[in-house]
Amino acid sequence: MKNSDKGKVADSIRLLPQQIEDALTQAKKFKLPESYKKINRVVVSGMGGSNLGARIIAAVFKDEARAPILIEPGYQVPAYVDRDTLYIISSYSGNTEEPLSTFAEAKARGAKIVGLTEASVKNKLAALLEKESLPGFIFSPAQNNPSRQPRLGLGYSIFALLALLAEVGVIKIDRQEITRIISALEKNNLSFDIAARQIAKKISNKEIILVGAEFLAGSLHALRNQFCETSKNFSAYLVVPDMNHYALEGLSNPASNRKNQVYVFWQSDFYHPRVAKRLRLTEEIVRKNKISVLSIKLNGKTKLGQAAEMLQLGSWLTFYLAIINQVDPIAIKSVDWFKKKLS
After folding, report:
1. CA–CA distance from 201 to each of 125, 195, 256, 303 (Å)?
2. H-helix or E-strand containing 294?
3. What are the structural domains of the chain?
């Protein structure tokens, strides 16, 4: 394992609680102009690992946020972005070309721009914010995310953004709840490390289909990312109840589904009762199609706690699947090749 993890992926996973604590500590020094509170929507422009935190927050706080939180990856600025929009340019490295390319248009629209990025020497986003005298939450993650990969620094991405949104009044956060979440994650690390080894064996050599609902939709997206990049294992996700209206009939073909796929259901007591029933019935249909099923019950005390719990267990799971697949969990050779060809 040590030989397979020269990029310190396991260390970054283990340090998730410290990432959260550090992000909130750094957030105390960050202030936004008073005018930034006069907004009616939040738009996050970010790609890949740099929008995972936003997706998790948008899902968890969907029924609490006073303004919609919208994730808009790509080169274009949506038509609805205006002076009443908090426009967050999220780039972990600060050099992601798509969100950087939207800066001028968002500024021309009068949007309230703020950057979310790491402290690094050659950070184009940080330099741009400084040049334009615009605020930026520039966090220092090196100590608690030694892998330096955005997908493994989600303690910063989630909770830095959470603190930012709390400051402008879009959501409210309970500091005591977060303290309890950090404590739970610290206690879970060893048991999840061990459990993930066993689960990884059960789902190896399979296409992994993640299934969940409601407040865990963002977490499903994040884990899909980690399975693909950390494990080098194809994964997709489906969200209940929407999937019940299109995906069920597709289970029967091709016949190779029975051999090649495994469905991982994420269960929660916080789901709407009808959604919980739908997950049970969906699992039954998958089994009837003779496709492998694994069901994981989350036990966190709050929705945010369960989202963090799912991220922690899932991250360990993707790490051990990488070991089984005999791949380097840090390397993203195809992505690096793709970026080089684009430049």
Report:
1. 41, 10, 20, 28
2. strand 292-297
3. 9-173 (3.40.50.10490), 198-324 (3.40.50.10490)
pTM over cut 0.85: yes
User: CA 220 to CA 343: how far, in whole Å?
Assistant: 31
Q: CA–CA distance from 137 to each of 59, 148, 190, 320 (Å)? A: 22, 17, 32, 33
Number of neighbouring beta carbons within 10 Å of residue 301? 13
**Contact residues for 331 (Cβ-Cβ < 8 A; gap 6+):** 7
**Alpha helices of the chain — where are they, by DSSP H?**
9-14, 16-27, 52-60, 97-101, 103-108, 124-131, 154-167, 175-203, 217-229, 257-260, 273-288, 303-324, 333-342
| Closest by Cα among 72, 44, 73 to 164 | 44
- The values of phi and psi at residue 187, to 5°, are -70, -35
> Three-class SS of residue 118?
strand
Half-sphere exposure of 284 (CA within 13 A, CB side): 6
DSSP 175-212: HHHHHHHHHHHHHHHHHHHHHHHHHHHHHTTSEEEEEE
Contact 93/123 with Cβ under 8 angstroms? yes
Q: 153-177 burial by CB neighbour count: b if 16+ within 10 A, else e?
A: bbbbbbbbbbbbbebbebbebeeee
Q: Please, what sign has the CA dihedral across residues 99, 105, 109, 110?
A: positive
Spell out the per-residue pLDDT of the chain, length 343, in tens: 667 788 999 999 999 999 999 999 999 988 999 999 999 999 999 999 999 999 999 999 999 999 999 999 999 999 999 999 999 999 999 999 999 999 999 999 999 999 999 988 789 999 999 999 999 999 988 899 999 999 999 999 999 999 999 999 999 999 999 999 999 999 999 999 999 999 999 999 999 999 999 999 999 999 999 999 999 999 999 999 999 999 999 999 999 999 999 999 999 999 999 999 999 999 999 999 999 999 999 999 999 999 999 999 999 999 999 999 999 999 999 999 998 998 8
